[in-house]
Every structure is written in C-alpha cells, then in structure tokens.
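Workshop exercise sheet. Pairs work together: one partner reads the sequence aloud, the other fills in the structure field after running the prediction. Swap roles for the next sheet.
Pair: D.N. / O.F.
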Amino acid sequence: MFFADLSALAPAIDKEAVLARNPDVILVRRRRRRGCAAGSRMESISNLEAVRNHHVFTVDPSLVGRMAPRILQGVREVCGLLDAARDQPSVGDPVGAAAPGHRL
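Structure field:
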C-alpha cells in the first residue's frame, strides 16, 4: 500500500507524492467536462508504472466522495478496476480520455 503510512483516512495526494512512490494503479476522479481528461496530464508522467501499463482509471466522485448508500456501488467499481489491473498487468489500451470506470 503506497499511502498506507498516511494518517488521514482520505488524504489529498499531490503529483510529487505520486511520482515518488511510483504506484501500480492510479485512480483519478472523473471530470464532468470532456476537455479536462486526466489522461493528458498522465502522459507527462509516462515513466510511472501505472501509466506505462495503462492502469490509470477514472472513478465517479459521486459514488466514492461521500458516505452515502451509493458508496457501495463506488466500492464495487473500484474493486473491479483493481481486479482488472491485477488480471492484466500490461494492457495495450492507448492513453486518452475514457468513460467513468475505464482506463485513461
């Protein structure tokens, strides 16, 4: 667990922290506007393991951003994404904009 040592339950993680820890998977919140895909920013850090293996995924913030009944749907989505990354260590999908719950 790359950020398990942090004391906050859901800490804000900056780009430098991600670069320093080189994670296998990166989850980013889906943005509502199409022109703001996180994938374009991920290309600038293409040396990360998660980016090289196309294990950068979007998640719907309305599902995981607050404790409400829909969080169970969000947990299911996140677990599915992590399972997909485990099952396919190197995926050939191109980096780019994606639908929620999909690779960037």
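Discussion prompt: Strands lie at 26-29, 56-59. What would you look at next?
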